[in-house]
Amino acid sequence: MEPRELDEISTAAALSTLIGLLFSAIVGAFLAILVLPYWLPAIGESLRGPAPKAYWYLSRASGLVAYGLLWFSMVLGLMITGRIARLWPGGPTAFDLHQHTALLSLALSLFHALILLGDRYISFTPLRIFLPFASVDYRPFWVGLGQVGFYLLALVGLTFYVRRQIGHTLWRRIHYLSFVVFVLITWHGIMSGTDVDRTWVQWLYRIAAGSVGALMIYRGVLLQLFRPINPQVR
Ligand code: HEM
């Protein structure tokens, strides 16, 4: 997408919407930890017992949904730059969806991390959740990749809001970090996730990595090869 085209498109979600989304993820995680044991006493053992599992299930589920949204956002971004989005679903729609899915992924991954505070198997503290590679009881390196990925995703997501202020070149450089985020989070999910043993989850990683890889090759190689020599002449 050209800088001029990009400037014409406004930010999909207002900053207040993003702040509301992140706030909801934080409040949702704490309410789940504090209220669920009283609200759903029938599953008390899974919530309050010596080894509560419900928070671990919630973390796994939200991690997988956050990953799915991140994948969708990557595909849409590559469809925009690879000019496939012009055919379907249209440039502005694709750009809107691209931003919304990235921001939703950020909010869900915040929930995915915070809800681990309710889990007793991995003794996370707020500091260990947000300090990269500080998870002592559970796969610190692989969890660390998720933590670094989270910060980079936040950086890429927030620069949607300062695009005009920081200029197109810097914005684009920061935006390229999304490829690093995708690789880090894919590794994080495969190497630290419990559900990697399930066939459908293995297919999710294969299809996600395969489709993003194929679109990158299409965009990077084929579009460069068949680029018009003088783009002014059409
Ligand atoms: C502060 C940042 C993060 C922390 C502390 C964290 C922590 C964890 C932990 C402890 C697990 C293992 C859970 C299990 O037993 O299955 C996990 C798995 C996973 N995480 Fe994260 N994570 C973070 C960021 C992210 C982000 C940004 C995403 C996606 C956008 C993500 C997606 C996943 C996925 C897909 C899994 C595998 C889930 C499964 O196999 O069921 N994580 N994460």
Describe this structure as you would to a colleague:
With 234 residues, the protein is mostly helical. It has one domain (3-225). It contains ten helices and no strands. Helix 2 runs parallel beside helix 5, helix 4 (54-81) runs parallel beside helix 10 (199-225) and helix 5 (91-114) packs across helix 7 (140-158). The longest helix is centred in the N-terminal third of the chain and has 28 residues, at 54-81. It is globular. The two termini are 17 Å apart. Bound molecules: protoporphyrin IX containing FE (HEM).
Biggest sheet details: none
Helix % is: over 70%
Helical/strand content category: mainly alpha
Radius of gyration computed on alpha carbons: 20 Å
Average predicted confidence as pLDDT: 89
Q: Provide the low-confidence segments as ranges.
A: none
Count of individual beta strands = 0
Number of DSSP helices? Answer: 10
Molecular shape: globular
Bound molecules: protoporphyrin IX containing FE
Distance between the first and last residues' Cα: 17 Å
How many discrete domains?
1
What sequence of helices (H) and strands (E) makes up the elements? HHHHHHHHHH
Beta-strand content bin:
under 5%
